[in-house]
């Protein structure tokens, strides 16, 4: 395993190509070892992000490794505030700050749209008989204070979270409940 910290402009310069080709070449070169790549950073311009997010086919499903609460080498490599506030950063930026999306559309792109796409039965909608996964938040108070050096910080403005019908966050405080489980396609 080789561990390097390079920016994409540096990688592109070493490879004699542009940044996007360097990015896709790295993914292709990794082949079956792609899961060993760890990349952080800003890959897109503000216009790229706006074009993607406003596309009717765009959905947001944050997927990240969280080991920051346990000390060790893996925790040192996975420090990332995305784990704690990826969805809220999306809401803050594209609903609250830029107004690119209406709140209802942003929520649909984070809930029912990925649930349907990935075949996660009985998820993603507030419907009788579906898993009770609910977040109560205050858009006026949302703030994501985590940083790369201090990522294990919950977002502010999220008052209540219910996962599989169990209250996980109550009044902004974790209840200790851990009702989450891996989701399988229906």
Mean pLDDT: 85
Strand count: 4
**Structural class by helix and strand composition:** alpha+beta
Strand content: 5-15%
What is the strand arrangement across the widest sheet? 1-2-3-4
Shape: globular
In which range does the helix fraction lie?
25-40%
Global Rg: 18 Å
Unreliable segments (pLDDT under 50, ≥5 consecutive)?
Answer: none
The N- and C-terminal alpha carbons lie at a distance of 36 Å
- Sketch the topology as an H/E string, one letter per element: HHHHHHHEEEE
Count of helix runs? 7
Mind describing the biggest β-sheet? 4 strands, antiparallel
What descriptors fit this protein?
single chain; 186 residues; alpha+beta; four-stranded antiparallel β-sheet; 34% helix
Write up this protein:
With 186 residues, this protein is α+β, with helices and mostly antiparallel strands. It is built from 7 helices and 4 strands. The protein has helices spanning 8-15, 19-30, 46-54, 73-77, 82-97, 103-110, 112-117, and strands at residues 134-137, 158-163, 166-170, 173-174. The protein has a 4-stranded antiparallel sheet with strand order 1-2-3-4, with no helix packed on it. It is globular.
């Amino acid at each position: 395993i080789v561990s390097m910290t390079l920016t994409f402009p540096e990688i592109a310069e070493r490879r004699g190509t542009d940044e996007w080709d360097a990015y896709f070449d790295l993914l292709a070169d990794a082949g079956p070892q792609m899961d060993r790549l760890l990349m952080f950073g800003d890959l897109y311009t503000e216009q790229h992000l706006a074009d993607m997010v406003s596309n009717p086919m765009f959905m947001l499903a944050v997927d990240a490794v969280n080991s920051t609460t346990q000390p060790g080498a893996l925790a040192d490599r996975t420090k990332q505030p995305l784990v704690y506030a990826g969805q809220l950063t999306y809401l803050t930026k594209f609903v609250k700050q830029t107004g690119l999306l209406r709140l209802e559309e942003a929520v649909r792109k984070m809930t029912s749209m990925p649930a349907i796409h990935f075949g996660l039965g009985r998820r993603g909608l507030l419907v009788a008989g579906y898993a009770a996964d609910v977040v109560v938040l205050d858009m006026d108070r949302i703030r994501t204070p985590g940083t790369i050096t201090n990522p294990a910080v919950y977002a502010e403005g999220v008052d209540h979270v219910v996962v599989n019908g169990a209250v996980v966050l109550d009044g902004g405080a974790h209840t200790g409940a851990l009702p989450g489980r891996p989701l399988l396609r229906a």
